[in-house]
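Note to self: the last two entries modelled the partners one at a time, which told us nothing about the interface. This time every component goes in together.
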Amino acid sequence: MTTLNDIKLPDNSPTVLLLDKHVDFIQKYGRSEDDYEFGMTDYLRMSGMYWGLTALELVNKLHCLPKNEVIEFIQKCQDAETGGISACIDHDPHLLHTLSAVQILCTYDRLDAIDVEGVVKYVASLQQPDGSFTGDKWGEVDTRFSFCAVATLTLLKRMDAIDVDKAIAFVESCKNFDGGFGSRPLSESHAGLVYCCIGFLSITGRLDIVDRDTLAWWLCERQLPSGGLNGRPEKLPDVCYSWWVLSSLTILGRLHWISSSALKTFILACQDTETGGFSDRPGDVADPYHTVFGLAALSLLGHNSIKPVNPTFCMPQYVIDRLELKPQMLQ
Amino acid sequence: MHGRVKVRTSEEQQLLKQKEQQKKLIAYRLGMKQILQSRKPDSYDPECLGICAQLLIINPDIYTLWNYRKEVVLLEIKTSNKDEDGEEKLCTFLENELKLTEQCLLANPKSYSSWHHRYWVLVHHPKANWKKEFDLCTKYLSMDDRNFHCWDYRRLILNKVGISLEDEIKFSTDRININFSNYSSWHYRSTILNQENLHDELKLVQNALFTDPADSSAWFYLRWVLSHSNVLKEDKEELLGSLEQLLELEPNCKWIVIAKCWLMKNIYENTDNSIQNQVNCYTRLKELDKMREGYYLDCQKTVVDDSETKE
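The predicted structure of the combined assembly is written out below.
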C-alpha cells in the first residue's frame, strides 16, 4: 500500500517571516568572491542575480546592492556577435540568462544599458520551424525556452520578431491527458513546466487553450498534508513549487482551490533561522533560488510586508505596470 | 540546492572544510580559465579536454563546458573526413564522449545538459547503436521509473529504432504491473494507447485502483479514460457498483468519492437523484479533504447551477 511521500514539519519551525535575516542573507551571498558556494556557481550567475535582486526588491531593499556594478556586469555578459547574454563573463550566451538579464534591467528601468536589438535578434534566431525554441545554438528544445523567448520579447515590446502563432501551436502540442504540460510534446506534466506553459499562454493571451479545471484540479492536488506543494504526483514538497503551482493557479483564477494557511505555514517553516534565506524543505541548506520563490509565493498569498508580485513574470507588479504590460489572467 | 541537509559541525571541522573548499575553488577557477582561454575555431588542446571532463563529472550543469566539447567533436568530424581510417578514430572518440555522459548521468540523473549532449553525440555518430541505447533506457527506467528525462530520451530513441506501438504498450503494462503507483507509466500509456476500445483499459485501471485505492496515479488516469465518449454505459455502471463496494471497505478514501461523482454525472446526467447524490458526495469530500474545500465547493455549485439551467 502507498505511504504518502511527504515530510513532517519540525516542532520548533519558524512561524513568522524573518525579513531582516533574508535581506542579510542575500546581501552577504554575493559579497565575498572567495565564498565557496558563490564561486562554484558562476555558470548560473545571471539567473542567480535575478533571484537575489528580485527577492530584495520584493521586500523593498534593492538599494542595498550596487546597481552600477550589476549593470556593468550585464553589459559585459552580452555577446557582441549573437546578441545573447551569458551566465557570466567568458561563458556562452543562453536564453535562460538572457531573460534573467532583461528582467533585472526592467526592474532597474535601465534597458538602455544593453543592445536591445541584439537581444531581439538572438531570441528570434532560436525559433525552430515547428515554432519551438532552443536554449542556445546547440539544439536543446524545451517549453522552458518558449516561455523565456516570449517573456523576453514582451518585456522588450518586440513580439513582432517571432512567429507567435507557431510558437503557440508548439506549446499547445505539449498538453497532456491530465491537462498539464511537459517539456516537449508527449512529455510528462511537471509543475515547473506547467508554469512555463501557463505563463507563455498568459503572455500570448491564449489561456483558452488550457483545460482550465482539469489542470487546476491536478495543480491543487499537489498540496500535501504538510501544507507544501510538490511538482508531480507522489513526489516530496519543495518551496520552489510553492511558486510554480501557486502562480499557475493564480493565473487560472483558482488560487482558492488549495489551503493558503497550510501552505504559508510550510513556506515559513523552510526559513533558516540562523543564516536567513529559504531552503527547499525544513532543515536543508538555504539558497537564493528558494528564497525568491518563497517570498514571491508569500506575496501571492497576500503577505503584507512583501510587495505584490506579478504571477506571470515573477517580477514586482509595479514594474510590469510601469511597462504597461497586461498578461492575461482568468477571473 | 535541492535536498541538501544542513549538517552541524564543530568549529575545527568547519575550518578544515573551508580549507578544502578553498582548494577546490582555486582548482575550479584555474581549470575553467585554462579551458575557456584555449578555445579556438580550428584546433583544441587535449589536456584542456581532459580537465573539462573532470570538471563536468563534478558538476554536469556547467553548460559552457558541454558547448566546448561539442565544438571539439565538430573539429574531430572535420579531421576524420580527411583521413583514411578517420571514421574508426572518430567512433573511438565519440564512444569516449558517451562514456563521459554516462558517468555524469550516474552521478546526476537529472542533468538536462548531460542527456542533451548524449543525444547530440549519437546524432553525429556514424555508427550510432540506437538499439543499445534503447536497452539502456529500459535498464535506467527499471532503476528509477519516475525519471522524466529518461522517458523523454526513450521517446527520442523510439523514432530511431523503429519500435512498434504495441511493443511500447506492453512495456508500459509491464511497468504498471511492477508498480501501480507510477504516474510516469500511466502518462506514457496515455500517449500511445489505441483509444478505440477502452473496455480492457478500464479493467486494467480498475485493477490498480482496487489494489491500492490511496494512490493517486491511477485515479488521474481513470478520469481521463472516462472522459472518452466511447466508454460503454454498462462498463461505467459496473465500475460505479464496484466503487460502492470499495467505499464500504475504505470509507475515508476521498478518491473513491470523487470518482463516484464523475461517474454519476457521466451516466445519469442531471436526474434529481443523481444531483442530490453528487451534492452529498461533495459535502462528504469537504470533510474528508479540508485543504481542497474551495475546489469541492465550486464543484458542488456547478452541479446545482447546471441542474437549474436545465430546468
